[in-house]
Amino acid sequence: MTSVIDGTDVRRADIRRVGLADAARMRALRLEMLADAPLAFLETIAEAAARPHAEYAARIAQVSTGTENAQFVADPGGRLVGHAGGITHPAEPAVTVLYAVYITPPWRGTGLLAELVDAVSAWSRACGRHELMLEVVVGNDRAYRAYQRLGFVDTGVRVPHPHIPALRELQMRRPASAPI
Q: Which residues does the UniProt record annotate as the domain N-acetyltransferase (predicted)?
């Protein structure tokens, strides 16, 4: 649980695995993610907005249980304010790929990122995968520094952005250890 003290205001968000009842709130968060950081995610806001509710619900059903793919949310009791997913690396079965990490702007810098990554890490360890990997667009220094603070190390590997060939992504890894 995150507590943010701003004067007398204390905000709390539960970190938990996404559930079937979250489909509408996940859709709202996904649209916010794409509007705020269009290069960081693998679809456009138009594609996400056009997807019917039933498709969001089906996706949530796939990631709400199991050991291959999971999504975690930060839930303060209204709008969802953060998200992080983990999926088994297709070529390295002992590695979990961290994906679709997002913190809504008013909650950035509160420790929520660390809590979401810790949730993915704990799930990864429980599934027998002991390493986390992620990719960040080269030049996204804010995200790069945030992941460094969480123990991720730049591997030196650079790959093309999956949708924008002019961009490159850098790979970072860390053990799926206990919270940092």
A: 13-177
**38 φ/ψ angles, rounded to the nearest 5 degrees:** -65, -25
Instruction: Output the tens digit of pLDDT for each of the chain's 180 residues.
Output: 544 444 434 568 999 999 999 999 999 999 999 999 887 888 889 999 999 999 989 999 999 999 999 999 999 998 999 999 999 999 999 999 999 999 999 999 999 999 999 999 999 999 999 999 999 999 999 999 999 999 999 999 999 988 888 889 999 999 998 666
CATH 3.40.630.30 corresponds to the domain 2-175: yes
- In angstroms, the CA 39 to CA 56 distance is 21
3-state class (DSSP) for residue 132 = strand
Is-contact 116 74, C-beta < 8 A?
Answer: yes
Sequence spans of domains, the chain: 2-175
Report the relative pairing of strands 131-137 and 95-103 from DSSP bridges.
parallel
* Length reported for the chain: 180
Q: Look-up: residue for tokens 């998200």?
A: 83
